[in-house]
Amino acid sequence: MKCADSALPSALGWLLRFALAFGLLNTLLTFENRWPGFGVAYMPRLSFELCLAVVALMGWVIWRGSLSPRAATVSATGFMALVLVRYASVTAAAVMGRPVNVYWDGRHAGELLRVAAQSWPVWQGVVVLLALLLGTLLLTAVARRAIAELARGLAWERPRPWLLAGVGVCTLSFAAYVPEQRDTRWFFSLPLTPTLVHQVQLLARVGRPGQATQVLGPSPVFDGDLSGLVSDPGAADVLLVFAESYGAITFDDTAQAAALAAPRTELAEAIRASGRFVVSSRVKAPTFGGSSWLSHAALLAGVDTSDPADHDLLLTSQRPTLVSHFERHGYRTVGWMPGLKRPWPEGVFYGFDRLADDAGIGYRGPDFGYWRIPDQAAMALLQAQELDRASDRSPRFAVFATTSTHAPFHPVAPFVQDWSRLTQPDAYMPAEMAAALAAPLSVTEPLSQYLESLRYQFAWLADYLRQVAPRPLVMVIVGDHQPPALVSGPGASWDVPVHVVSDNPALLQRLLGSGFVPGLTPPAHALGPLHQLTTVLLEAFDAPGAGETLGIEHVAVPDAPHSAPGS
Predict the structure, then answer these.
(1) Looking at the 3D structure of the chain, how many domains does it have?
(2) C-alpha span between 86 and 80 (Å, rounded)
(3) What is the pTM of this model?
(4) Amino acid 392: pLDDT
């Protein structure tokens, strides 16, 4: 009896220490994102992988007798790597609305840090970095202590059968799961192993670029003659605008749609007043919340780039693109990329006659944050340098990737009435600059800033079409992706709007026959993935041959500006 009494306190002490160590490690592998933001929230779930790790640690202790300090340090370091993977996994899904891609996202981590450095005061950045460093070291020390405590607990033989039985039950429960039929994993957290395996597969795939021909799907047929763009007084310029973070959420979310109703009405009125018309649709972007280049490549090449590795493979190929297609038919091709701040050798794939980056655009005004060139100023410079019809010139195919609606959506430059001023050093007055920089910035709740940046976008687009845009002109406005999940919310679709503005009713009628609708409001259902839009545009840019019909019974686009769709 005395032996039993003395064993009871010992068993309780063992159980408390073991449970505390296991619970701490389990918490570090099962936390979730605290939305909206970059914080974490405790989630009462069980890590199946930690259960298996306990069995592995038990085998180590039985074999070696104990866990050495060096082995505990190595184990803690590996464990913290898993914690970082967990954080990246849950945070990317909540903030960006897409799965993490360690290879692809890691390549651009430096630029993200530079964006943050431009958005925060220096002292705040230093404090954040120090806090992250100290926090990581502290958690590593705590994890090492917890792992060592587990190893000491597993040195006692008596509870081992019970632990093995518990892990066995968990394994059976995990294996018995059948999607949509039998949920036996409700108490488990999502495992990390599939994420790690997927990252390894991505790395292996990127390491074999020669697979492009086999991996990438077929390209569209670039055999048209662009005759549908020819009207009086000649071939139309084509301006393809990738509107940064312009997502379908701005139509699908009632509050966002209401907040943007007035500037959209102003844009529609400007289109009508300029004698032009607009038709709209929506497509599914290959990315969400970021990685705009995936959407650029998808539309320009007509190839599915939803897998970032496929995008890399595409850029190593000799696939035709809209750029090469227009160049072959006598167009001067221009890539207008104010957000491009570093050398981009991959851009050779597109073959622009001119690829103008941040330094090559010629902006001389004051900087507005990390994305220093406001969209209106970038558009004014594109107009002055490439689109001005004052002299006889070849038609232009220009691709303009905007930046002012890019996260963190701050600061938003003021709208300038005099477009010629935007090409000069005094593009913005000091008071205007100070007011823009003084606007409050919120990293975790950026919705109001996002809406303000879109109001700015609609304002300059409306004024450009009203008084500056050349004739004839076909403007294609495509959202590159939805805004980050901090703005779009959980569960948002990957859809983005597409608007085509032109004074050529026949061209727009062909688009109506392909699933577009009159006006600025797209239909509720997507036309398809973004890369399929390439074929739709190619067909619209070609005039119907003899005996062909336009695919609809009557001209849905009015022939007088006072009744244009979208008004």
Answers:
(1) 2
(2) 10
(3) 0.72
(4) 72
